[in-house]
Amino acid sequence: MLDALKFFLFVILLLVTIMLNQHVTSKRSAELDLELLWQIQDTKGVYVIQNQTVPSGVYTALEQSMVIGSLLEEYNDVNTSWVGETDWTYRTNLSCLAEDYKYVLLTFHGVDTFASVSLGEQLLGSTENMFVRYRYDVKQLCDGDTHELRLQFRSPVVEARERAKDRALPIVPTCPPDVYHGQCHVNLIRKMQASFAWDWGLSAPSMGIWKPIRLEYYSSALIRDLTVVISELEVSGSERWSIAVRVYLETGLASAQVHGLLTFKIIGVPFLNEADQTLAVMNKTNEHGELLVEHGLTVARNAVERWWPNGYGKQTLYSLYVRWEDEAVNGVKLPNPDTMISEKVIRIGFRTVQLSQERATDGLMFYFKVNDVPIFAKGSNWIPSSVLPERSYDSNYVKFLLYAARDAHMNMLRVWGGGLYESDHFYRLADELGLLIWHDLMFACSMYPSEPVFLRTVQEEVRQNVRRIQHHPSVAVWATNNENEVALRQNWYKTNANYTAYYTQYVELYVRTVLPTVEANDPWRTVLLSSPSNGDQSLKERFIATNPQDPRYGDVHYYNYFLDGWNAAQYRGGRFVSEYGFQSFPAYTSWPEARSYRQAELSQLINHRQHSPLGNAPILTMIELNLPLPRDPSADGYWPELIYLSQLSQAMIVKTETEVYRARRVEHGTMGALYWQLNDVWIAPSWSSIEYGGTFKLLHVWLRDIFAPEHLVAFVNERRQLEVVAVRDTLQPDVQLWDVELRIHRYGSFRLVERIRQERIRVPANTVELVSTWDVYGHLAKQGLHPADHLVLLYAYLHPADGQPGQPAPQPIAENFALLDKLKNIRQEQRVEPTVSISVVSAVCSEQSNLTSVSLEVSVSAPALFVYLQLTPENSTLKQCQFSRNGFLQFQPVRTVQLTCVDPGCRNKIQARDITVRTVNELLVR
């Protein structure tokens, strides 16, 4: 029976192999994915992995074949380091027919990173930049015979090491800190910089074919890219949109004459001038087979709707269709006319984006205007969704993360410069969700070479990726690097001894190469030289500002790990804060080893994955400043308690800092808050708000309020006054009238101590309004009340005059809280441990969406501080479970919370016993 089953499986595999390796032919111009079966093996033939498909990577293939365990488990980041130091070969069989096609090209959209490419006995070429598309002419080899397609990969670790030898001026830093457990010299190669390890990520020096391979057949010209510049103009009193379209045509790899017709359409939108629909082209491609054709279109302004960022309006998109048709198609009767036709469709949005840097009394402003509306940028920083490039384009996971950003009221994400140029899917979703993109080029935290061969591949990398991404309306600004200006100015890597030489390299790479290449391919957007930087002021200071972190200019990155992050008085902000944040630990149940590890073993693993050179000290310090800190690492409950407190502390720090930045919109001109970081690449201590795999930390749940379009901010300022600020990002109506209520509560009782109400507060659109500054401490002292025993709960309501007719109940707008002392200082008589019970009110699961939704009631016998709900580890088959509220203050006996999970097959029935509860109260009463 077993032999028969083996034979059956062999026959199926043989048939699949034959189908996937059959002749690849077409009678049309086409880009055909080569979904072939590949064999992967090391150079010594010790490991031979069959039947792999692309996109692919060596780590993924070894995991799937169970040669190694999961890279993300236990200590496998170190145990599998040999993989990245080994050479590997990919091979498959390819049979194709060139027939009458003029051009047949084998195109690799992403090879990671160093490979020699051969077809049969012919060496086609070599690759050295994972961000570059490589094309090879294979027409003569598409003869119907079967040839072996072979990519021989060289270890990126070894290649980087070799490139570092005998350099007169070392490219620093030469190695990451030891705590990273990483590899050296990643700055010498054009590969995802974080793949050699980062302070939030593991070392995974990947190799493989991380993007599709395609055979391109055509006989005239191929439309490779379309870019647009869309602007508003008024002509003779007529308001219109101008669309400057650039069409990038290709004719193989060499110069050729092209003669034909381009046709343009915006689906559903008429052009003001019908003659714009076509453009005759008669020209010659350059020596690389490339030709740029420019054409202008105009449409009436009222014929289209504007595209807006999330929270400001709709994200209306239109399809721009461009068709190339060779002149020969209509001149003579051809057997296969479609081989001389090429088509491409992109989605565009009608919007304007301006980065305003006008003069202010104390420097320059720095903010984005979209459709002439100033936008307070709310959001986060995006790192690759996986440390392995072939997994980073997982469309479902990328969609989950971007929807999570949208649902938290974000309107901007910063694509960080140590990662990847993201997938087309990523940018399409950003367009649809209204997420503006601040886009770094892929250079981060380092000096880089500037020799001609390096600059040439960088120039090609920038050219290709900017052209591919450029048409997306979500992209707001480019920055040539992350933190390299400030690293050079502040001597992060001991560059001062050779400052002039490193400065020259910096200017050669960014000012003379990257900047003009971006501008040449995208005249639609501003290009910043770095982040953080002083924007226009840095240009006046010969590209390296005296203080790139000057809060009066450009953007700043702000981290301070030992001042009390819960204290609002320490934050000033800048014009635009593009990085800030604090670490926490992933949930206890997210550590797959937690159930089998003893406390000491789990401590060792967590410390191994803590890549910050400061270790866990900032987390512990911040908890100790504000909360009761667990003292015994050997106790059974140590890590669950510490993890909970770390997430609460992270949420409080980011909440406090973000709300100060929002409140200082007018006073300090602060117009952006992008915290570090949205996502993770493994389960480890980090700054993320979403754990790897999709579990929300407390911070991400809180962000729905922190970033809410209408919000009531309250904090104790540097004058020890309770400052209350109404925040509105909404545009309509022009003015709202708010009623604001402050309720003073004692920690140990549901009974309200005092209620203070202010009515008819005038809150204009798209700005902030000071509600009050109040000496709350003097007020309490007059009544003989101790601040440590009390907190303030705040509520905002729409004033009834502005409410809906016939709706007598006040319409709530926002709620918030303000702590008046550290939680650890609550006096003994107010330290009450409530009884907390959970009951399931209803549970529904959709078999169509595999989404289960559970309504829970949380009941408490006394006020509960920062109620933390978690599913037990036994529910591990449920994915991406999120509570609508978590880490909340409960000063009412009953509260309703929604739980949603992805439950494949709707197999789980969640009950009350499946949910654990923690509160700060239980730690205070010990």
Automatic annotation (TrEMBL):
Its EC number is 3.2.1.25. The keyword Glycoprotein applies. InterPro entries: Beta-gal/glucu_dom_sf (IPR036156), Beta-mannosidase-like_N2 (IPR054593), Beta-mannosidase_GH2 (IPR050887), Galactose-bd-like_sf (IPR008979), GH (IPR017853), Ig-like_fold (IPR013783). One of its GO terms (cellular component) is lysosome. Residues 38-211 form the Beta-mannosidase-like galactose-binding domain. GO terms for biological process: glycoprotein catabolic process. Gene3D superfamilies: Galactose-binding domain-like (2.60.120.260), Glycosidases (3.20.20.80), Immunoglobulins (2.60.40.10). Residues 1-26 form the signal peptide. One of its GO terms (molecular function) is beta-mannosidase activity. It comes from the Eukaryota. It is found in: Lysosome. Keywords: Glycoprotein, Glycosidase, Hydrolase, Lysosome, Signal. It catalyses: Hydrolysis of terminal, non-reducing beta-D-mannose residues in beta-D-mannosides. This is beta-mannosidase. It comes from Anopheles melas.
